[in-house]
Automatic annotation (TrEMBL):
GO terms for biological process: glutamyl-tRNA aminoacylation. Keywords: Aminoacyl-tRNA synthetase, ATP-binding, Ligase, Metal-binding, Nucleotide-binding, Protein biosynthesis, Zinc. Belongs to the class-I aminoacyl-tRNA synthetase family. NCBIfam families: PRK05710.1-4. One of its GO terms (molecular function) is glutamate-tRNA ligase activity. Gene3D superfamilies: HUPs. This is Glutamyl-Q tRNA(Asp) ligase. PROSITE patterns: AA_TRNA_LIGASE_I (PS00178). Residues 5-277 form the Glutamyl/glutaminyl-tRNA synthetase class Ib catalytic domain. GO terms for cellular component: cytosol. InterPro entries: aa-tRNA-synth_I_CS (IPR001412), Glu/Gln-tRNA-synth (IPR000924), Glu/Gln-tRNA-synth_Ib_cat-dom (IPR020058), GluQ/Sye (IPR049940), Rossmann-like_a/b/a_fold (IPR014729). The keyword ATP-binding applies.
Amino acid sequence: MSPPRLRFAPSPNGYLHLGHALSALVTWDAAYKLGGTASLRIEDIDLARCKPGFTEAIVEDLHWLGLTWPEPVLLQSDRFELYADAANSLRSADLLYPCFCTRTQISETATATDPDGAPLYPGTCRHLSNAERIERLERGDPVQFRLDTEAAQRRTGMLTYTRIGPSILDRPQIRYARPEWWGDVVVQRKDVPTSYHLSVVVDDAAQGISHVTRGRDLEAATDIHVLLQMLLGLPTPLYHFHRLLKDDAGEKLSKSRGSVSLRDYRAKGWTPEDVRRAVGF
């Protein structure tokens, strides 16, 4: 058997904070305990928000923490053609459909929320006739492509994945995946030929990732990832979800909330050991 392979996959749309440090340290520690390797992957499909300067800062911060990884680093922005091929496979199976709805329209018509608390897409464009779809596509209306989750589940049947925790060395547990909770997720966005869900499963398979370590806030997304893995004939890794760091208001640390960055702590004189202590590692 091949040695275990893990990955840390930040998005370069801001500077790393203590929550990222915890996630990275968990990943490298798990790789050490399993006798495997940890790789760095840069998830930069959001071309509008991701900047090369942030990628350079990620590499600098992780090296400062004492972490190393095999080269070259995988950049998702170099792999759009591969993601498009995967989407075309789903399209050929009649599992994707074009969606012309705006966020405002979805918010106004949704009657439920997804596991992230966002308005659950009500399937409006799933019911468009082929003629209307063709007309709107030829007209050049802004479009994204969604997975027909109900049809996809009829193909796959009941889905499960293996979860390990709270320690990476604990006994694995089988969990049932519930992709229907997410509705018809976006597989190809309006601006790029992929989405977070699609690119993640394609790259985990391409890199031979055996164990996925990530925060508990991303556990629910595993339901969709398992479904896509089955549809695309890709392996399903083992999953380990670690604790989250929260601020004084009880909210998880995030770039969008302006959480203090690692480089800000460095400017204050913090050492890598100070960071490890701060995240309880």
